[in-house]
Specification:
The structure holds 2 protein chains of 2 kinds. By secondary structure, chain A is an alpha/beta fold. Chain A has 17 helices and 19 strands. In chain A, β12 and β13 (347-356) form a beta hairpin. By secondary structure, chain B is α/β, with parallel strands linked by helices. The N and C termini of chain B lie far apart (55 Å). Classes of the chains: A alpha/beta, B alpha/beta. Chain A binds chain B through residues 34, 37-38, 41, 44-50, 105-106, 108-109, and chain B through 68-70, 347-351, 353-354, 366, 370, 390-391.
């Protein structure tokens, strides 16, 4: 351990290997069989259950929990996967506290919902250790191109393969998985789960994955439309919004998504540099993921600066609590004005904000805090969308079935209109688009 | 703290909680621990006749039924009577009784249905100084195949005969322990009464198979791939036991016959219910086998606090509910209730709706925003919604006042008591005297 949390500037090896291993271990340890039985028993098996309504993929939660409680976790997993083939990842990363678990009647009753996410993980982990449970319908001879191997693309591909179509997935990155692989905090998906999940998913057959193949570069949308019976776009939001503050180009100022991706791809966490004083600009899940991981890497102080009030933060209450618990300071009503430093960032200047008549406005009162590393987590935007598609609010315009303005082209996930930008929403959109594609081409 | 001193058949004990004849009372070591923990008395595990002791299986003796979180709801056993030499047991009983004169020590006995066998053992039991005996006519497994235990308890004539022998050859109280594996508990109770029993104790265990192993298809507990029915006990059998105690308590032929209540007593509350239904004391086994002897301390504090709250003495509680146990035909048909859902407490799980809509009377409606409401014109007051609601007190049965309209029948609630015996639909109804 060459350095400590107090080493100035950006430095690696701030913590021992043991501390890093402990810090980046599974956030929620998996249930063992007895824990799952006890947790499952708390489910009331509600009629027309609110948790199901709250799930973007409409998993029959009371049924799968009952299947766990009767000792049939594989049947439970099948119930989950029929609706959500990425149920394993969703069990880990879904903000359940704002979805199924928020709707759980036991949340209303006693402020302690059934731990649906962890139960889902118990079921899906059990089945994913075994052969793939789904088989393909008779081959249709139809071929579908899927752009993007993220949650939307994978869900779409699997459903199409199940219906007997052949699928080719084109992905810009060296590894499939999209944000599951590159964009989620390490402690939420340990032990290479994202790749293991892709490997398991494609066991159904009929899915080929082309890596390092961004559409627009090597493959154009027109070519895909010409070659395939249908095209699904699940390309995510590749662009990152700018800070629009002076000094944004100074050393030490980075995109949070890049930092998160580096962390996920690192073989050795101690090789990653992190600032002594880290400031994250933003208020969403990405901001929390970056801030918490910076702290876990050994930063002495980490601050999330969010320009609006805490009630407006995109990060859930659970995520905010997690950040606070790990020692991250959340500073609200503060917007960046400038990054100061001679070449590299040393301080960030912030201005307090208030809600004015014309919207959010600066109060004129500014202050500086030490910052040798600044992460921008102020939202992503669609970047490199193929020409010719109608956009709406900066996203690809789609109808309820995921159809774009272009014939034979569907889209879903973060790049398309509608839905929250969540893994689970992307899965639902990919799946539903697949059903519409199937109905159209079969 | 209300005094819990119990007087059952003249046998005093500091509280009405006795350990039932079972594994916990098989030897001096356990019984001393039980008395140190606070138990008021014990019924020593059943002694057999002189000679080579019985043998037990060498595989599992118990099977189990679990509730949530492996909570033990019921245990089934295939253990036989004591498998230790008679003389050893007698010496230990004498030693324990001498050291704990304030505690009740009852000796359970099971010997063949021959007068000589009883005549032989009773004087030796008397010598121990024990306070009384309990005749084991209840165990449904193993010994019953040899004409003992429940094989006797299922034949009222045998019960009466053996009881009479015991009263003749033993001068302290004789308690007859009854098996529930019969059709009408009143007949064996009457037989015991006729034979001169000082009391009956019930229930012994219920014949049962707890489960089947779905891999090797053996009943559990499995002995080398085979199973034999055992005796079921614990919280799961309490409702059966309560009814049988009440049936004896309210039977005019056995009225006043003291009862020692047994069957699933797990908490002070269970004990209070047995006492209210006419038991003079209670015997406990499964709760102790599950949690150890210390559980009696909760039973003592709970019952005492309850009596404090009610301003009642222990004897005043005993039998308090017996007058309220009646036949169905005498229930008041003019007592009309309707389910009421407290919307403040409702957590919107919809279980009341599913239960009523699918399996009952379609008397609960569900709105798009999950508001559940009772339709009085369909509600027959079956109580199922109350039973399945996970929130205590959220759904209640509210009585309609006399004169109020019952929307289901379209008639106002009659103010007077009326039952089936006088109901016009009853072919055997007896019109009120003109």
């Amino acid at each position: 351990m060459a350095n400590t949390p107090f080493t100035p500037g950006i430095a690696d090896q701030r913590l021992s290997a043991e501390d890093l291993a402990r810090n980046f271990a599974d956030l929620h340890a998996p249930y063992d069989g007895h824990e799952a039985a006890v947790a499952a028993d708390r489910c009331y098996f509600c009629h027309d259950a609110p948790c199901v309504t709250a799930c973007p993929t409409t998993i029959d939660i009371p049924l799968f929990i009952r299947q766990i409680s009767t000792g049939t976790p594989e049947a439970a997993a099948k119930t989950i996967f029929e609706q959500n083939i990425l149920g394993g990842m969703c069990a880990r990363v879904c903000p359940t506290e704002t979805l199924c678990e928020e709707a759980c009647v036991r949340e209303a009753a006693e402020g302690k919902p059934v731990e649906i996410g962890r139960l889902q993980r118990f079921a899906t982990d059990t089945m994913m250790a075994k052969p793939h449970p789904f088989s393909r319908a008779a081959p249709t001879g139809k071929r579908v191109a899927v752009a993007g191997a993220g949650p939307a693309g994978l869900a779409c591909a699997h459903r199409l393969a199940m219906h007997g179509h052949d699928v080719v997935i084109f992905d810009a990155r060296p590894k499939p998985g999209g944000l599951n692989e590159y964009g989620i905090a390490s402690y939420k998906t340990v032990d290479g789960f994202a790749q293991a999940e892709v490997d398991w998913l494609v066991q159904i057959g009929g899915i080929a994955i082309r890596r390092d193949a961004a559409i627009g570069d090597s493959v154009g949308l027109d070519a895909l439309v010409a070659e395939f019976d249908a095209v699904f776009l699940g390309i995510g939001l590749a662009g990152v919004n700018a800070l629009r503050a002076d000094g944004e180009d100074k050393g030490g100022v980075r995109d949070a998504v890049e930092f998160i991706a580096d962390l996920r791809q690192a073989d050795d966490l101690s090789s990653l540099g992190v600032g002594r004083n880290v400031v994250v600009i933003g208020g969403g899940m990405t901001a929390v993921d970056a801030a918490v991981q910076a702290k876990l890497l050994g930063a002495e102080s980490v601050t999330i600066a969010y320009r609006r009030g805490q009630d407006r933060m995109g990060a859930s209450g659970f995520e905010q609590d997690l950040a606070a618990q790990k020692g991250v300071r959340i500073l609200c009503n503060a917007q960046p004005v400038a990054v100061h430093g001679n070449g590299a960032a040393q301080e960030i200047e912030l201005e307090y904000t208030r809600q004015g008549a014309g919207g959010l406005e600066g109060t004129g009162e500014t202050f500086r805090i030490a910052a040798d590393q600044v992460f921008k987590a102020i939202g992503q935007r669609l970047d490199g969308a193929p020409q010719g598609l109608a956009l709406e609010g900066g996203k690809i315009q789609v109808d309820a079935n995921g159809r774009t303005s272009m014939a034979k082209v569907w889209a879903g996930g973060d790049c398309a209109t509608g839905g929250d930008d969540l893994t689970v929403t992307a899965v639902a959109e990919g799946r539903d688009a697949a059903e519409d594609i199937h109905a159209t081409i079969a | 703290m209300t005094d819990l001193t119990s007087d059952f058949l003249g046998i005093k004990s500091p509280n009405p909680f006795w350990l039932a004849s079972a594994p916990p009372t098989d030897k001096e070591y356990n019984v001393r621990r039980a008395f140190e923990a606070g138990w008021g008395g014990v019924v020593w595990k059943t002694l057999g006749e002189e000679g080579p002791p019985v043998v037990n299986v060498n595989g599992p003796r118990y099977g189990v039924i679990y509730g949530a979180d492996r909570r033990v709801l019921g245990i089934n056993n295939i253990e036989l009577i004591t498998d230790r030499p008679l003389q050893t047991n007698l010496e230990e009983i004498a030693a324990v009784k001498a050291d704990y004169p304030d505690r009740a020590v009852i000796v359970s006995i099971m010997v063949p249905c021959e007068e000589a066998a009883w005549k032989a053992i009773l004087p030796r039991v008397a010598e121990t100084g024990a306070d009384g005996i309990e005749l084991n006519f209840g165990c449904p497994h193993g010994m019953s195949e040899r004409g003992m235990g429940s094989a006797v308890g299922q034949v009222p004539e045998y019960i009466e005969m053996v009881t009479r022998w015991c009263k003749e050859h033993y001068d302290k109280p004789v308690i007859v322990k009854l098996t529930p594996n019969i059709t009408d508990i009143r007949y064996p109770a009457r037989a015991a009464h006729n034979g001169g029993a000082d009391a009956v104790s019930l229930i012994n265990t219920v014949s049962s198979i707890t489960s089947v192993n779905l891999d090797n298809f053996s009943p559990e507990p499995s002995i080398d791939g085979k199973g034999s029915h055992g005796g079921y006990c614990g919280a799961a059998v309490k409702p059966i036991a309560l009814n049988m105690v009440a049936e004896i308590a309210r039977d005019p032929e056995t009225a006043g016959l003291p009862i020692s209540g047994i069957g699933g007593v797990t908490t002070w509350r269970d004990a209070a219910e047995f006492l209210a239904l006419g038991a003079g004391n209670v015997q406990v086994c499964t709760a102790a086998m599950t949690y150890g002897f210390k559980v009696v301390q909760e039973m003592i504090s709970g019952l005492s606090d309850y009596l404090d709250d009610k301003g009642m003495t222990l004897p005043e509680l005993i039998g308090r509910s017996v007058p309220n146990v009646t036949d169905w035909q005498y229930l008041n048909l003019n007592y009309v209730t309707k389910a009421r859902i407290d919307q403040e407490d409702c957590i919107k799980c919809g279980r009341c709706y599913a239960a009523c809509e699918d399996t009952s009377h379609q008397a609960i409606t569900m709105s798009a925003d999950r508001v559940f409401e009772v339709q009085d014109d369909e509600c027959v007051a079956c109580n199922l919604c109350v039973n399945v609601c996970p929130v205590e007190g959220c759904i209640t049965m509210e009585e309609l006042a006399p004169g109020a309209m019952d929307q289901r029948t379209g008639k106002p609630v009659e103010p007077d008591y009326a039952n089936w015996t006088t109901h016009p639909n009853n072919p055997a109804s007896r019109p009120a005297a003109e």
